[in-house]
Amino acid sequence: MMQLARLIGLEHFLKRFGSPQTAEPDTESLAGLVEERLDAIAGGLVAEAASSDDVIDGASAQAFFEDRLKTLGKLIGEEHRRALAAAFAESTKDW
Q1: pLDDT per residue over 32-46, tens digit each?
Q2: DSSP H helical ranges for the chain
């Protein structure tokens, strides 16, 4: 939950659910916040990939992205995964 809260923007997460260490948002409420902050989440994932020593090209960026989505698990629904994948691919297409 901490990682997702950071990608969403901690202030936005705190305002809606309180501390990510103790928050237990229902699936629908969390999905709503993810929807609202989808661009910020995608931007955060691109920034993380750009700062990673393991990302050296488009293929490694994609592998990084897929690994991050696995880490986030069921906190991100399938529709949002597709939207994030599209945004990430667009932002990293020239890598």
Answers
A1: 999 999 999 999 999
A2: 2-8, 10-17, 27-36, 38-51, 58-72, 78-92
Report the candidate in 32, 23, 16 with the shortest Cα–Cα distance to residue 2: 23
Q: What is the pLDDT of residue 89?
A: 95
The whole-model pTM stands at: 0.91
Domain ranges of the chain: 2-92
| Nearest-angstrom CA–CA distance, 95 and 81 | 21
Amino acid 22: pLDDT: 96
Name the nearest CA neighbour of 21 among 43, 4, 46. 4
CA 26 vs. chain centroid, Å, equals: 18
